[in-house]
Write a structure and sequence with these properties.
CATH topology: Nitrilase/N-carbamoyl-D-aminoacid amidohydrolase
Largest sheet: 7 strands, mixed
Number of helices: 7
Distance between the termini: 31 Å
Strand content: 25-35%
Helix content: 25-40%
Structural class: alpha+beta
Number of strands: 17
Number of domains: 1
Order of helices and strands: EHEHHEEEEEEEEHEHEEEEEEHH
Radius of gyration: 18 Å
CATH superfamily: Carbon-nitrogen hydrolase
Length: 280
């Protein structure tokens, strides 16, 4: 299976972000012919005001209903059908009542059927070394379901950004059969430069899974005061030995790698950590 992770520089305008995503997805699909493509975290609306985020969020259709969704939802479905690929939608803002959201992944198969939905479990409530505060829980509600899905012959696990710091989630995903884990992100520049690659490599080594991590990059403006903030980028694919096998350059673009089940099987056979596990 060939996997492409798309690196975007989104802002607060949903229409502009969808146009950017379309350009990058179409270019990556034409150039690399992936079987599975992924967008980053909250690529439909990064930054802006609380009111803007709520206004641009989407009410998702009931699972298995095949009903029409919002603009981003139907855009993702259309890419899947048109290119006949699996589309992992990174994450988008999902409405949760009048004044709350979920940070939600939706995944479509090559026929445009939704096959998975994951709501981010761990919310980003931290202060970065320069004193900038992030309070994701002030707007978003936490999900509570560990999610895997099938893409072709591969079991794929779902996670989003800050989830990366909680190893127990990834152990659960491995326990549910995951061989590849998708990690769409909008990692801050301050945390990303020190923690992004080491944490991904650690989780890949621990779980003996492939990781495909699509990320946002560049500057965006947050809140009514339009505070400038920066995300780290460096979208990547890592293998089950923890090696980075594909990495996006600075700026928008993508990275593509082949996920090889034979390598996964060999790593797990030669170092059978799951059979050695004593604590859970």
């Amino acid at each position: 299976m060939r996997v492409s992770v798309i690196q975007m520089s989104p802002g607060a305008d949903k229409a502009d972000n969808i146009a950017q995503a379309r350009r990058l997805l179409e270019a990556a699909i034409a150039a690399d012919r992936p079987d599975l493509v992924s967008l980053p975290e909250v690529w439909t609306c990064l930054g802006g005001t609380r009111e803007g985020k709520l206004a641009q969020a989407e009410a998702l259709p009931a699972r298995d209903s095949n009903a029409a969704g919002g603009e981003a939802y139907e855009f993702l479905r259309g890419i899947a059908r048109g290119a006949h690929v699996f589309v992992h939608g990174g994450s988008i803002q999902e409405r949760n009542g009048p004044d709350r959201l979920y940070n939600t992944t939706v995944v479509f198969d090559p026929d445009g059927q939704e096959i998975a939905r994951y709501r981010k479990i761990h919310l980003f409530d931290i202060t970065t070394p320069d004193g900038t505060g992030f309070r994701e829980s002030s707007l978003y509600s936490s999900g509570d379901e560990v999610v895997t899905f099938r893409a072709g012959d591969i079991t794929v696990g779902a996670a989003i950004c800050y989830d990366l710091r909680f190893a127990e989630l990834f152990a659960r995903l491995r326990g549910q059969g995951a061989e590849l884990i998708m990690l769409p992100s909008a990692f801050t520049l301050q945390t990303g430069k020190d923690h992004w690659e080491p944490l991904i490599r650690a989780r890949a080594i621990e779980t003996q899974c492939w990781f495909a991590a699509a990320a946002t990059c560049g500057r965006y403006l947050e809140g009514a005061r339009a505070e400038p903030r920066f995300t780290y980028g460096h979208s990547l694919v890592a293998d089950p030995w923890g090696q980075v096998v594909a990495l996006a350059s600075d700026g928008t673009g993508w990275a593509t790698a082949r996920v090889d089940p034979a390598l996964t099987a060999r790593v797990r056979r030669d170092m059978p950590v799951e059979s050695h596990r004593k604590l859970s």
